[in-house]
Structures are given as C-alpha cells and as structure tokens.
Design a protein that fits this description.
It is a single chain. Strands 1, 2, 5, 6, 7, 8, 9, 10 and 11 form a nine-stranded mixed sheet that branches. The protein has a two-stranded antiparallel ribbon with strand order 3-4. β10, α14 and β11 form a beta-alpha-beta unit. It is 41% helix and 14% strand. α3 packs across α4 and α3 packs antiparallel against α9. The protein is built from 14 helices and eleven strands. The protein is globular.
Amino acid sequence: MSQSQEKAAIQRKPFKLPPHDEVALVLQGGGALGSYQAGVYEGIEEAGIQPNWISGISIGALNTAIIAGNAPEKRAEALRGFWNTICQPADMLGYLGAWVPRAVGLNDLSRKWSSLWAAGRALVEGQQGFFSPRFPWPVPGMGKRSPNEVSFYDTAALRATLLQFADFDRINDGDTRVSVGAVNVRTGNLVYFDNTKMRLEPEHFMASGALPPGFPAVEIDGEYYWDGGLVSNTPLTEVVSHPQHKKTLVFQVDLWSASGVLPGDLLDVCERAKDIQYSSRTRTITAMLGSNQVHAQLIRELLKHVPPGLEKDHPLIREAQKVADGRAVNVLQLIFKNKAYQGHYKDYEFSIDTMRDHWQTGLDDIRASFEHPDWFAIPSHDSRFITHDVHYARSPAEKTRITGAIHPVDSPPMCHPI
C-alpha cells in the first residue's frame, strides 16, 4: 500500500464525535457548485457520522432530498447518480465540447474554454433531467400566464429525477429531520417546509430551488414559491434558533466565498458581486449568533446577583434564565474556494469534469477538517458559540474565538439559471 493509500485509509476510519444533542448538515444554494456539498457529505459518511437534521436551500435542498431519501449506506451512491444525471450534455455537440478538453490534457486554457462552453450550452439547451428551455418565452404582450409558467426554463424533468434518486417515504417517515427554505411569492416571506410539520413532496424541494426568472414558481397548496436564496441563502438560522437543542454541531457547507481577489474586468466584477451577495448573509447570521451568545453570557452573570428565591417567582427572571441557558453551538464551515478556470457562470456550469473536480474538493476539505479533532469539541460554558474553517489560517489563540464580521447585503441576488 502506498503512502497516499495509507493516509486515505486512516482518514476513512470512523470519527468519534463528542456527545452532541444535535448534528446538523446545513447546505447553501449555489447551483452547479452543489457537487462540492456532495463531496463533503461523502467524507462525513465515510467518517461514520449521520446528521439527524439536514436543512437546505436551492441546490442545497435538492442535495438534502437525495441524502435524506436514502439509507445511510447508499447516500453517497445516490448523490453520485443524481449529479451524473444532471451533468450530462443534452446533445452530441455538448458531448464533443466536453470531450475535446480532456483529449488535449485539460491545460488551463482548454479548461477555461471547456467551462465556458458548458455554461453556454446550459443556457441554450438546459440540462438533462433538470431543466429545459421554455418556448416561446412569456414576454410582455402575449397575455398573462400562471406564475408557474413565467420563466425562461421548464423544470418538469427535475421532479422525475428527484423521484428516481430519493425515496420520499423515507424522507417523511425516517429518523432524519428535514427542512428546506423557500419564499412565498405573494407575501415575500421566507418559510421552511419541515417533515416534522408536514409531508414533504418533490414540489417542496423544487420550490426551494425555483430561482426567477430562470425557473418558474412552484405551486403548493394554492400558494406559489420561489428560491429561498432570494431572502437568505443559508438555513443556519433555522437550525440553531431552536433552544431545545442544547449542544449542536453544525456542518455548514457554503458555496460562495466572502473573500476573493480584486476584479480586473467586467466579468470579474459579475463573479465577485455574486460571491459577496450570496456569502454575506451567512457571515451576518454567524455574527448575529455569536453576539447572541455573548448576551446570554452577560445575562447569566447578572442572574448571579438575583436574590435567592426570586427566580422561581418572577416571570421575567424565568424568561431570562431560558435565554441565559442558551445553546452550545459549534459550526464547522466548509466553504468552496473559486477555481482559476471558472468565471461568473460557475453556478450554471454543469460539465462532468467540473462536477467531479468540485466533488473531490469537498471531499478533500472535510477530510482535512477531520484531522483536527479538537474542532469538534462541545463549546465551553463561556464561549457557547464557536466556528472553525479549514481554509481560515488562525493562531492557536484564535481557534475558539467567536467569529463573524457583519457585512449585510440586503439587495436581491443577481438572476441566474440556478
């Protein structure tokens, strides 16, 4: 066995987690970048860890359906089947565009052209088992249509693909909590479809990924829903806002990096703007949660000065005690880092080569994270909220500090197909 194989074998040994009450997997939106999440999950599975709550938005919701809709030992295989399906070119010209770069060795230039080709083809032709161009487009002057017909693409094929790779009886009757976010088109409110409150069907997951104007709104019980990323591209708040979960470990898989290089042309500007728009809310939420834990600690200290017996009689004191007890939250962040060959179209570039590259990157990142067992410890009573990121170089003193700078971006995301 080679040295690399020996290292891989060590990494595949079951990983012993501290006794958390909740192990959550949080999956952000990001279209074609979502295969990174699949790679992360494969690494979680090979470590012998089974999340008991999975929450997703957009492509994260689709990955959630595949994971929760299969037995633990079959989840990685089902994810691979799903991604191999939706990353297939729709015609022979697409196959040619995918084959030529491989034939010449996938050097930097050919890889960039291959990526651009695949993204352009997705815009023109759609993706097998996922979405197809709508014709004619619902342009003004052609009469009003139903919200589920007003889009550039039709996603009817996605329903069949979800049913092929996910067992919805398992999603609803299994022991994994599932919640996916979508926006009510009429009210503009973000809602979560949760299998502890309702039966989830393919439409709930499709609604979470229905980003306009590319994809049509999805009708559920007389209401129409769009992509949850229009309001918040991460379901982290939904997972950690439930105080009954005292000790929570969150695997947060983000597909947009807040940090990046300065743009050098207009296409770079488009890419950088997407990164900031879709990642900023995650950082804001992380900062907010950290701030809440600081407040809880202050309340705990103040309660020490309450006269004995009063805490049992006064309703405000009892409420303060609930806040002070708080939660112990440990967030392990897995953040996709941009590739040199990609551009602003990276979220709708579905080539097989790129999908496999993203998948392997996610697998590498989670394996590297498991090399730091101390990152998975339950936060101390004083800190209560900690984050770790394998890409974030810290000094030892910084490893357990509360993190997150607030950089809110409240403008709606730029439109793109996924």
